[in-house]
């Protein structure tokens, strides 16, 4: 999977930002990435590159700028390799086994732009009231947020912390089911 790269877009197909995955794929092909797959309608992109190619933060910034211009929206991208997605899936399995009644909880992965954001979120999570069973688990530069179903925007952490504009360009979230689907495609 060393040639699989995952780009996660923040904030598409919500709050009036509508981008069809077919159009997103065409835009990326137009930017010179011929092997593009999209998963679901939430801006999950897998790019397969030649073994000699690799991404850097500058290239990601250029892609975000081009997509923002193409779709008239403030584009924020988060890059992970296929191997990193595999590590997240493995860590999620371990953390899910510690949750009582897992079917009653949402298990989110928070993809952050830097490890410092995870530390900051961890401190903020510790400082707010929590729903029963709500947890925050740092995993390197990312984190898991486990929250009772129906409480995602009703908890202090979900509404007062993750909803802050300050985090718009610093993180994006995906349900672990989506992360598992992304990993399954990367592993092919």
TrEMBL record:
<protein>
    <submittedName>
        <fullName>DUF1697 domain-containing protein</fullName>
    </submittedName>
</protein>
<dbReference type="Pfam" id="PF08002">
    <property type="entry name" value="DUF1697"/>
</dbReference>
<dbReference type="InterPro" id="IPR012545">
    <property type="entry name" value="DUF1697"/>
</dbReference>
């Amino acid at each position: 999977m060393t040639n699989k790269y995952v780009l996660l877009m923040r904030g598409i197909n919500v709050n009036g930002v509508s981008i069809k995955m077919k159009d997103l794929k065409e835009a990326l092909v137009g930017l010179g990435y011929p092997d593009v797959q999209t998963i679901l309608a939430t801006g999950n992109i897998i790019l397969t590159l030649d073994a000699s190619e690799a991404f850097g933060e500058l290239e990601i910034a250029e892609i975000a700028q081009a997509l923002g211009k193409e779709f008239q929206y403030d584009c924020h991208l988060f890059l992970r390799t296929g191997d990193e997605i595999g590590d997240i899936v493995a860590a999620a399995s371990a953390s899910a086994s510690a949750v009582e009644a897992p079917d009653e909880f949402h298990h989110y992965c928070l993809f952050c732009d830097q490890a410092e954001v995870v530390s900051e979120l961890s401190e903020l999570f510790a400082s707010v009231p929590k729903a029963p069973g709500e947890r925050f688990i740092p995993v390197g530069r990312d984190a898991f947020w486990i929250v009772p179903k129906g409480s995602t925007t009703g908890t202090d952490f979900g509404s007062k912390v993750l909803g802050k504009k300050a985090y718009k360009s610093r993180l994006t979230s995906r349900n672990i089911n989506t992360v598992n689907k992304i990993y399954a495609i990367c592993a092919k």
